[in-house]
């Protein structure tokens, strides 16, 4: 009986209240300027591809709470020093109904190279229902 239950799952964990817990929503540069909608309790993982990105606090931390500080992972090979090759990842939790804004900025887009206005800011609008 236990085997049938374990194999027949949907891939989503059920909470003690019986509600289905969705996997985290992953977001990156392709969603810049867009709006995403999350259910309360769902996590948002934002991965930006440059080690120069700096994340600001969300516009409404009670709505979208950061649960993991930014983690920077430098690319280990195939990159010139100072180029910023790698990623910065932040994890948020949709805590309560409302809207919030995730913003990251950078001033460098490579070795001693400034960013254009479009490349220096990432913004993601988040609606929590």
Summarize the structure.
By secondary structure, the chain is mainly beta. 5% of the residues lie in helices and 43% in strands.
Overall description:
With 129 residues, this protein is mainly beta. The protein has a single domain (21-128), classed as Immunoglobulin-like. Helix content is 5%, strand content 43%. It contains one helix and ten strands. The protein has one helix at residues 2-7; strands at 13-14, 20-21, 25-27, 35-38, 43-48, 54-55, 64-74, 86-94, 98-105, 121-128. The strands form three sheets. A four-stranded mixed beta sheet has the order 3-5-8-7, with no helix packed on it. Strand 1 and strand 2 form a beta hairpin. The radius of gyration is 18 Å and the shape is elongated. The model is unreliable at 1-19 (pLDDT under 50).
Radius of gyration: 18 Å
How would you classify the helix and strand content by structural class? Answer: mainly beta
Distance between the termini: 36 Å
Number of helices: 1
Strand content: 35-45%
CATH architecture: Sandwich
Keyword list:
43% strand, mainly beta, Immunoglobulin-like, four-stranded mixed β-sheet, 129 residues, 1 helix, disordered N terminus, 10 strands
């Amino acid at each position: 009986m236990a085997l049938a239950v374990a194999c027949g799952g949907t891939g989503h964990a059920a909470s003690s209240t019986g509600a289905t817990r969705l996997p985290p929503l992953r977001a990156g540069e392709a969603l810049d300027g867009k709006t995403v909608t999350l259910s309360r309790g769902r996590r948002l993982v934002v991965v930006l591809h440059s080690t120069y990105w700096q994340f600001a606090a969300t516009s409404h931390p009670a709505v979208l709470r950061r649960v993991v500080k930014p983690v920077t992972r430098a690319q280990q090979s195939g990159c010139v020093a100072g180029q910023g090759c790698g990623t910065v990842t932040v994890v948020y939790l949709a805590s309560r109904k409302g809207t919030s804004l995730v913003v990251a900025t950078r001033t460098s887009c490579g070795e001693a190279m400034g960013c254009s206005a479009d490349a220096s800011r990432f913004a993601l609008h988040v609606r929590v229902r």
